[in-house]
Amino acid sequence: MRYLPLSPQDRAEMLGVIGVNSIDDLFVDVPQSARRTGLVDLPLHMGELEVERALTRLAAKNTAASSVPFFCGAGAYKHHVPASVDHLIQRSEFLTSYTPYQPEIAQGTLQVLFEFQTQVANLTGMEVANASMYDGSTATAEAVLMAHRVTKRGKAVFSGGVHPHYLHAAETLAHATQIETVALEPAIDGEAKVIDAIDANTACVVVQTPNVFGTATDVTKIAEAAHAAGALLIVVVTEAVSLGLLKSPGAMGADIVAAEGQSIGVGLNFGGPYVGLFAVREKLTRQMPGRLCGETVDADGKRGYVLTLSTREQHIRRDKATSNICTNSGLCALAWTIHMSLMGEKGLRGVAEISHAQALKLRDALKSVPGVEILTPRFFNEFAIRTPGSATAVVEALAKKGVLGGVPYARLHPEGGFEDVILVAATETVTDADIKAYQTALSEVLA
Amino acid sequence: MRFTKDHEWVSLDGDVATIGITRYAAEQLGDVVFVETPEAGKAVNKGDGCAVVESVKAASDVYSPVSGEVVEGNAALGSAPETVNADPEGAGWFCKIKVANAADVDALMDRAAYDAFLATL
To answer: Which residues of B touch A320 (CB under 8 A)?
Structure first.
């Protein structure tokens, strides 16, 4: 059945009201040269069975992450998500409930978001977390805008280790709000270089650990230098599982943590939807973007959950809101919280330990391949390798041999140099046989 | 003390104007939970937002009735925003502004005119 909401008579009446004869009259301002004549060459409609066949053929052209030895990371990590997570998030109480403005009918959703915030705050070592952002890159951009509001200064300095896509997202928003962004040269182990770029107009320095090359950095000294100059330290984390082992950003003096939560509870999903984690010091809470759930008591003194500090938000503060985000990644945040709850503190540490252990094995295996140089000095589960020639060519040759061997850095930042560098990641899903297969394939490719 | 139609009050001492919101405004807002006051040195134009007052119902801008430079924001409101409800036309002041033109203040309503204005609302 075709869905035709308007009858010809409806259309004629509507066109009459605005004073035109036909729908085509609405497009008279589009030059003839820009208009298409005739129909687009598309196949005719098909039945469900034929569509399924066609799409299955198309899908078979992909090499799925779970079908081959897989070592890609660079901001999206393939961790095991238990089947129970997917089952629980599909319960209709969760799946169909949307924006929880009415606490009297949304206690389940609100409580989940409250638990989510608590877990994010604990994991990042911060005092307050919001109910999630779209993803890590927009969380980073929002952190920069927030630092500008807090310090009333106009410059943000990015280390050369921040994921280039995160930098681009932040540049886009900062540009539109007249904040100057300074991006330092890409560097494998140079987070601390931001210290020399701090001046009296610096609102924030943005560093990442582990950074895009995998290097883990103790940012305590950077925090001290930023604070001494009246600037904020924003710490970016693209692999949330790393927080199961590494010292938390909060413990190292971060003022704002902007992180990608994808690696917990959320699959690779072709790049989205993901879930941004955003956590701050308590004194900065009122300048936070996004939704925040709070715990309170009802008229009978029973515990309950509500949206709180909403006066920061767009539906009340309009153009003076702290952000134009008016939602959150509710379903991904739910998956994150369920996965975290299933793992618990010990489970998360276990996943982190296995990921790190597999990454060490992978490093040793790749180091033994003639021509390969390991570049990352300290890492969690991802590191950069240098191979002779173009990294893109090596990765493509590996793919032909059935190994997805990592992400060429140049793919993230084509003008950034490092054309011979591949970012290589391991998680608990990588087996010893996968590592052996990579070592063999890389030896053949480089032979 | 002079008053605006936006329910701010101004009290001029020499060339320094103290600015707050009226008792009527405080009652309309309900319990004030947060106040953001400007920092000393900030230049403001007549009609600009110079402070934010937030109650459990709404967040509102406080518009400066005068042009000039902020001398002081009432830092005490940071930890005790309820002062705005308790003493809106006294200890609940928002900021002090060194006025560029004292005539800005003279042009505002006096108490009798403001009371008459309230009677029309």
So the answer is: 49, 52, 59, 61
Tens digits of per-residue pLDDT, A180-197?
999 999 999 999 999 999
Per-residue pLDDT tens over the stretch A116-127: 999 999 999 999
Put the strands of the sheet holding A421-425 in their side by side order: A373-374, A382-386, A421-425, A407-408
Instruction: Look at B34 and A311 and tell me if their CB atoms are within 8 Å.
Output: yes
Q: Which two tokens stand for residue A130?
A: 């919001």
In tens, the pLDDT along A374-403 reads: 999 999 999 999 999 999 999 999 999 999
* Cα gap A57→A238, rounded to integer Å: 33
Residue B38 and residue A76: Cα distance in Å, rounded? 43
Residue A311 C-alpha, separation from nearest chain B C-alpha, in angstroms: 6
At residue A1 the predicted structure's pLDDT band, cuts being 50, 70 and 90, is: low
Return d(Cα A223, Cα A252) in angstroms, integer: 7
Nearest CA in chain A to B59: A311
Complex ipTM, two decimals? 0.72
Interface-testing mutation among B35, B50, B54, with chain A (most A C-beta atoms within 10 A): B54
The reply to whether residue A311 touches residue B61, judged by beta carbons under 8 angstroms, is no
Residues 36-95 of B with CB under 8 A from A: 49, 52, 54, 58-59, 61
